[in-house]
Amino acid sequence: MFPLRRNRRLRASHAVRSLVQETSISPNDFIVPLFVVEGSGVKEEIPSMPDYYRFSLDLLKDEVQLLWIMGLKSVLLFVKVHDHLKDNAGTEALNPNGLMQRAIKTVKDVAPDMYVMTDVALDPFSSYGHDGIVKDHQIINDETCDVLAKMAISHAQAGADMVAPSDMMDGRILYIREALEEEGYKNTGIMSYSAKYASAFYGPFRDALDSAPGFGDKKTYQMDPANRSEAIRETLMDIDEGADIVMVKPGLCYLDIVRDLKNEVEVPISVYQVSGEYAMLKAAAEKGWLDHDAVMMEQITAIKRAGADLIASYFAKDVVRLLD
Ligand code: PBG
User: Fold this and answer.
1) What DSSP line would sit under 125-161, residue for residue?
2) Which end of the chain is less crowded, N or C, counting CB atoms within 10 A of the terminal residue's CB?
3) What per-residue confidence (pLDDT) applies to 71?
4) Taking all residues of the chain, what is their mean pLDDT, rounded to a whole number?
5) Residue 31 CB contacts under 8 Å (≥ 6 apart), including other chains
6) Nearest alpha carbon, ligand 1 atom 10
């Protein structure tokens, strides 16, 4: 007999395809990264990230309101601070009236139920553009953890719901968790960038924040793209140390890691589809070489199919508009 099973039966119409679809996308899947700058009336496009902007606090309000109305319920805040405020220890990061602290309050003012996550790392505040304190051209671990823990507390005090350490120092999740507990921030969560690779895909982000490393690279703390089991080890340690959500970053090139972790761990996994991934698609679409919306949806679907429970993506608004 000719095949009893014809797989094309389940592909024959839109209706049946929808019925058997295994992965679906909704606004609940997204964390929206936002770039904040000083000033007023500022909405400046990031040259290497078409249609993505840095906002001053007044215009951040409008943006956050829009996101909330669109059903996007979580933001991840990054700040670009003036050069004269940068030093080796990232002192400005602890300023209770610093840009990050004001940004957190601004978001909570306009959308009290918006889930606010904050970047915890020294690079936007570091005169060296590194994620940690520099001594003799080395990024020193434990002293950095101490500052990161203080930074996390400062964000919690300002109203952050979850802190997101993106620095890859050893032991920082435990440091931060213990500090939060001691200060009474028991419900402040930690989303750890647990498997963060030393990737060339971060270029546009460093343009956005003017945070490129002043010397060397980040390979002594971020992971080697060639490694796979190391990602599991890093992530299991972060979970032991108290991470509520773990992350793989970047996205598309690292989906094997996402699936490895999905099979291994019991906490939500987020994936950061990073600036370079965004830039590549925007550029190809501008040239008319790729269908922007179709490729975007295919990529987001692939990230989710691989095992992402959450996706930090610059495409979040574009995707939600398309879903409507
Ligand atoms: C820095 C940080 C980076 C990103 C998020 N946090 C860049 C880096 O590690 O140099 C990259 C995000 C992106 O490329 O979209 N702590």
Assistant:
1) GBTT--SSEEETTEEEHHHHHHHHHHHHHHHHHHT-S
2) N
3) 98
4) 97
5) 74, 75, 76, 117, 270, 310, 311, 312, 313, 316
6) 202
**In angstroms, rounded to a whole number, what is the distance separating the alpha carbons of residues 220 and 71?**
39
Q: How many domains in the chain?
A: 1
**Would 2 be classed as within a structural domain?**
no
Partners of 79 in the beta sheet? Answer: 36
Residue found by looking up tokens 């999740």 in the block: 173
How far, in Å, is the centroid of ligand 1 from the Cα of 202?
A: 6
pLDDT tens digits, one per residue of 236-286: 999 999 999 999 999 999 999 999 999 999 999 999 999 999 999 999 999
Check if the beta carbon of residue 115 is closer than 8 Å to that of residue 107. Answer: no
| Residue having the nearest C-alpha atom to atom 7 of ligand 1 | 202
**Per-residue pLDDT, 282:** 98
Question: pTM of the prediction?
Answer: 0.97
Question: Is 249 annotated as catalytic?
Answer: yes
